[in-house]
């Protein structure tokens, strides 16, 4: 079963993620299953942050644009979760909502409160249930594994940006802990083949939505790599 692409505003040409594995194998985790089943989409989804990390020609404006794109996606994700029953019961959400930190960084970089309020955001309805919402959380939080490296690289080149990296440092020293918490919650929700397949499908839909959003929001990411 695959999610309705039209519901999430995802273009029809996007490829569905194959899911030959069903229940999480003994000794494995739902996170490792998601890593494997969505791997083909990771490079494209990571292009914005990878560019800031590896391309020394990137500028402050490139960082500002990446924050703007991320804010438009994550703020909508957080709102969708707020209207989805059971998410807070499946996982402690304290400290996990970070769009407010992006807004702080945007203000530090010179945006006005009106600029932030007027930013275009991804259109995302409430999720079907907590399992679907946490599958998308896997997509939203996966870049945190490189955020500290991105912050270090940016600050090494633009010292004044140190005051505008609260989002990148949100999980400093706690990346593994946050990932483990999400993994445990997903393991507890994946009690059947049906739920496991829906989680894989939802994560795939989340990646495709993120990729499409980035391509339409940032000219530098418009060309397929």
Tell me what the structure shows:
The protein is mainly α and 225 residues long. Helix content is 58%, strand content 0%. Mean pLDDT is 89; it is low at 1-21.
Keywords:
single chain, 225 residues, mainly alpha, disordered N terminus
- Strand percentage lies at under 5%
> Helix- and strand-based class?
mainly alpha
Largest sheet: none
Spans of at least 5 consecutive residues whose pLDDT stays below 50 are: 1-21
Distance between the termini: 28 Å
Task: Evaluate the radius of gyration.
Answer: 17 Å
SSE layout:
Blueprint: H1 30-37, H2 39-45, H3 47-54, H4 60-82, H5 87-90, H6 99-108, H7 113-117, H8 130-141, H9 144-157, H10 175-189, H11 193-217
Helix pairs in contact: 1-11, 2-11, 3-9, 4-6, 4-8, 8-10, 8-11
